[in-house]
Amino acid sequence: MNGLLSFIAQVVRLKSAMGRLQRYEFKFFVGLIISFLLIYLSFEVIFKNELIRERAPTRTGSSHSSSDTPRSPQITLLLRMPGKVMEHRARYYCDLFRSTVLFWPPSFGKTVIVLDEESQADHEFGEIVINHTRKHFPEYRLEVNYEALPKDKRVLEFPGAPRSPGYNRQLWSSFFFDLYTNDPIIAWMDSDVAFITPVTKSSIFSGTKLRVLGWDCTFHFPWVKQWAITSERALGLPFVADYMSYFPVYIYRDTFLHCREHIMKHWNVSDFEQAFRLFYNDRNMLSPVSVVLSYAWFFERDRYDWNMKLCSSLTEYNKRFPAGASVGPEHLADILSQPQTTFHVPYGEFLSANILISYCLSHEVAGNRLAVCEKHNFSLSDNFYLLHHDLQRVKEIQPNTCAGNNTDYCLQVLDCHYKEVGLEIKQNGRELLWSNVDVVEKLGNEVGLTCKPLLY
Ligand SMILES: *[C@@H]1O[C@H](CO)[C@@H](O)[C@H](O)[C@H]1NC(C)=O
Ligand SMILES: *[C@@H]1O[C@H](CO)[C@@H](O)[C@H](O)[C@H]1NC(C)=O
Ligand SMILES: *[C@@H]1O[C@H](CO)[C@@H](O)[C@H](O)[C@H]1NC(C)=O
Ligand SMILES: *[C@@H]1O[C@H](CO)[C@@H](O)[C@H](O)[C@H]1NC(C)=O
Questions:
Q1: % of the chain with per-residue pLDDT over 70
Q2: How far does the centroid of ligand 3 lie from the alpha carbon of residue 348, in Å?
Q3: Which residue among 33, 61, 345, 449 has the highest number of C-beta atoms inside a 10 angstrom radius?
């Protein structure tokens, strides 16, 4: 695209130099320029298509260059999934795709899906989603990439492995997300999440820092204890917190590379497959999000804005950390200062109701009266769940985060959020169209999927 822009700039410069030319020559020149432009555009289209279908990135790619430097940094919405599994296809259409076209503005950046290279069914699925997106949502740039299996089978299969080879492959891939985009920021999505409220810049950034949420109140769960073990093994440094409580997880692209480099250095190996096998090789489960963000805590703390909630005392908590790495009050947030923007659908089906609530609250602030919303008369307090650190367990947490003295603060946070969204709808033409949801449901039907309705 930058190539095209500079080409146009050249043309404009050329045209101003043309004042001196005769009319006949001028027409000839314009004709020439238009032909060049057409040839250029068709090349762009052809090569982009080829790249999307054929590119199988190498493991060593580490380019820091980013060609996109418009007003705000581009963010790649990135999803790793197995395209041959029907359940995952359904999740993609009914959860992610359907809610993305409602709540994730295409101006934030492209979407990248990473599928299995060796699977014919994945290639077919990739083609279907590209066709559907191009035809119905051309403003959402979508790329599909294919990832080869790791060379060593033992990366995915070993005695006593807590998860299936397919699941382990997702864990493995999570350390390489930087290979699938050149954008400076990656919005790491899980394969079973849906957006629940419009994503705003304020929910992503705090100044120039990327917001991180995390909490330690799940530390008594056996699998979280196991994450702590594998994470500490990987990094040689303590697990900081459970960072699996939210998505998308926004991570600078180069943090992935730095994290791999650190892990390989820690294990004195030059191949990440070897390193991976050294920290994930027994019954203990692994959370790549928690490894990468624990890495960021120790080595790139200032690039991120930490919003953690602890269930133990800070003094007690800090005993585990080396000097200079302790958590301070400035890293804590008992109540989120921005709403969660997604939820894990299989674990929180009841939260689906909030999709319509958020849609209606946004349009109300923008001054749009919609029939579907007038029926309900939603208020900000219907959205209180979104201010919890852990949406999955929101019903079990007592007292409710937004109860009692906290109610005013919660209302303020949600009020700010919806004012930002409402203003964007009015001023920048941010779109929030339920018709997009209908379109994705129809596309899902075309490929044999039926999504549960979101309207009520
Ligand atoms: C995608 O679109 C192309 C071009 O229109 C078509 O040739 C191809 O069959 C489509 N693929 C699928 C899987 O629908
Ligand atoms: C890596 O090598 C260094 C120096 O030889 C050694 O001190 C360290 O224990 C090794 N690390 C691991 C994880 O084996
Ligand atoms: C909507 O809620 C407001 C405030 O709670 C209330 O005053 C109003 O009567 C309600 N309207 C309808 C149509 O239920
Ligand atoms: C709410 O705040 C008041 C005044 O600061 C305090 O007395 C009261 O204990 C608080 N209630 C709760 C439930 O925290």
A1: 84
A2: 28
A3: 345
